[in-house]
């Protein structure tokens, strides 16, 4: 697995569209179509969340392939390139070691934007994200879309136009997921 740092032009393109790499901290998101890529089409009640999200194996592991497939489809639509901002990473996890992540990307590079142009590498980062070992911001700049890895497989989606947001919603449905507003 090889990670290359994004160049200055790529960083500036992300900042131009999304204002910051940690888009989840942006206060004014009014210019975006925003939704949550999720297993459920509605916000769970406290009781439902307790019942449905309490088992990592019965939630994250059960549904992670759907997220990886959806992110992979977006990657392909985006021309086989994604910029990824890794803000919180557990490099010491057994899975990260097994996937060879630690030796290719180190703590010194955390909080930098990397460029991935290989589907296998993207799938590894997506898997580490669905397992809550990496919290990645995926920037698909050809369709001006950001997907933010988050807890409990509830990934915020920011897209700057309705047509691509509709495509993302349909792609999520094809993979057994939803983008709820």
Key traits:
single chain; 181 residues; alpha+beta; eight-stranded antiparallel β-sheet
Task: Provide a compact summary of the structure.
The protein has 181 residues and is α+β, with helices and mostly antiparallel strands. The protein contains 7 helices and 8 strands; from the N terminus they run βαβααβααβαβββαβ.
Verbal overview:
Helices cover 41% and strands 22% of the residues. The mean pLDDT is 88. It has 181 residues and is an alpha+beta fold. The protein has an 8-stranded antiparallel β-sheet, sandwiched between helices. It has 7 helices and 8 strands; from the N terminus they run E-H-E-H-H-E-H-H-E-H-E-E-E-H-E. It has one domain.
SSE order and pairing:
Elements lengths: L3 E2 L2 H11 L14 E6 L7 H8 L3 H21 L4 E8 L4 H5 L2 H4 L8 E4 L2 H12 L3 E7 L4 E4 L6 E5 L2 H13 L3 E3 L1
Antiparallel strand pairs: 1-4, 2-7, 2-8, 3-4, 3-5, 5-6, 6-7
What characteristic shape results from the CA principal axes? globular
Determine Rg (CA atoms, Å).
Answer: 16 Å
State the end-to-end CA separation.
35 Å
Secondary-structure element order, N to C = EHEHHEHHEHEEEHE
- Count all strands and give the number: 8
Low-confidence runs:
none
Q: Which bin fits the share of residues in helices?
A: 40-55%
The biggest sheet, with number of strands, parallel, antiparallel or mixed sense and barrel status, is: 8 strands, antiparallel
Q: What is the SS-derived class?
A: alpha+beta
How many helices does DSSP assign? 7
Strand content bin? 15-25%
Main sheet: which strands, in order across? Answer: 1-4-3-5-6-7-2-8
Mean of the pLDDT scores? 88
Total separate domains: 1
């Amino acid at each position: 697995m090889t990670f290359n740092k994004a160049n200055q032009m790529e960083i500036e393109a992300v900042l131009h569209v999304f204002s910051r790499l940690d888009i989840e901290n942006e206060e004014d998101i009014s210019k975006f179509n925003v939704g949550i890529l999720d297993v459920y089409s509605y916000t769970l009640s406290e009781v439902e969340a307790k019942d449905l999200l309490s088992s990592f194996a019965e939630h994250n592991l059960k549904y992670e392939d759907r997220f990886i497939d959806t992110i992979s489809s977006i990657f392909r639509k985006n021309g086989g390139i994604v910029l990824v901002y890794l803000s919180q990473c557990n490099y010491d996890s057994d899975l990260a070691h097994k996937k060879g992540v630690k030796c290719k990307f180190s703590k010194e590079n955390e909080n930098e934007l990397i460029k991935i142009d290989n589907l296998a590498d993207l799938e590894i980062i997506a898997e580490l994200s669905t397992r809550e070992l990496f919290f990645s911001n995926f920037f698909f700049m050809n369709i001006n879309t950001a997907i933010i890895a988050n807890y409990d497989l509830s990934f915020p989606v920011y897209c700057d136009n309705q047509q691509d947001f509709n495509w993302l919603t349909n792609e999520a449905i094809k993979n057994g997921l939803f983008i709820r507003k």
